[in-house]
Amino acid sequence: MKLKSDYKPIVYLGLAIVLVSLALFITIEYFLPFAVGIIISLIIDPVINYFEVKLKIQRGIAVVIVLLAIISSFGYLIILAISRFIFEIGKLVNTLPNYTDYLNSIFESVSTFMFSVYDIIPKEVMDYLFKNWGQIITYLTGFLSKFYTLAEKLVIIPNLLIFLLFTFLSSFFFAKDKNNIISSIKSILPHNWYKKIEIIQSELIASAIGLIKAQIILIFISTIITIAGFYILNVDYALTLGIICGLLDILPVIGPSLIFVPWAIVALLLGNLKFSLSLIILHLFVSGMRQILQAKVIGTHLGLDPLLALISIYVGVKLFGFMGLFIGPMVAVIVKAIFQSGFLRS
């Protein structure tokens, strides 16, 4: 009997992980904007309370002011980044004619090289290449189609706008009617349940803020390393390009590769092998540092052991893809909060 009771915490832990993961897996696609909206409303709640209590501003108006301030700040930063990006692209376009003659000479050299290779390579090898050319094209097409599919997902503006709209609306209504919602929940749940849910809620709010801080820190570190690397390589517009690469770190799968890989290929085609290799090494170094620091930084800000944070990130990415970077650690935090609240013991 004692043996069975010793196994109870392990059984409860397993059940909690399975149930929370399953619930998120089933509902995340449909309830993500509302979940994000609730998290945002909980984060900005202290500011709204200050407006309401100290400045005597009606809660609904205070919510609108805070949300508009957040949207305006993000909008300004995005417009600033786009404007700077367009400016740098314009300067780059203006310098392209200077490379025309050089590119022509490169293409002529490549053509000459290809003809010379055709004469040198044995006929059997050429026959094999021609025979399997279809398979090579199929492989390359499949490889490129992955990037095309990813690009399609990244430019689904209508879905993104709908997501942002419902996130904003859910943030507004939950922040505005928070007291009424809490009163309704209190009237439904037993008193001892509500106290434990309050513990879970406070843990989740702290963890959501910690997760955002962790991602900002990781992006900041990647940006600083990239900028420093660009300056060491004497890259023009090192600061701007470093910031762009840092921001691209948010994107799933490709991230800064969107800049580094094409740039390295172009540098190689232009005959600058040393610079091309330097870009690849810098990219690998930045990516490696992010992976090494990710578990430690996220674990520290979420109050998780680094190994547990690493496992939650890996399992999250396997189950949910890119969003698993956030969902995995949050599941671990939810399970931890459930146990700390004593919910299962009751």
UniProtKB/TrEMBL annotation:
Keyword RNA-binding: no
Membrane topology of the entry: Multi-pass membrane protein
Cellular component terms (Gene Ontology): membrane
Keyword terms of this UniProt record: Membrane, Transmembrane, Transmembrane helix
GO biological process: transmembrane transport
Spans through the membrane: 9-28, 34-53, 60-82, 156-175, 204-233, 239-268, 275-293, 313-339
InterPro entries: AI-2E-like, YtvI-like
Subcellular location: Membrane
Lipoprotein listed as a keyword: no
Main localization category: membrane
Family statement drawn from the similarity comment of this UniProt entry: Belongs to the autoinducer-2 exporter (AI-2E) (TC 2.A.86) family.
Annotated NCBIfam families: spore_ytvI (TIGR02872)
Name of the protein in question: Sporulation integral membrane protein YtvI
Organism, scientific name: Caldanaerovirga acetigignens
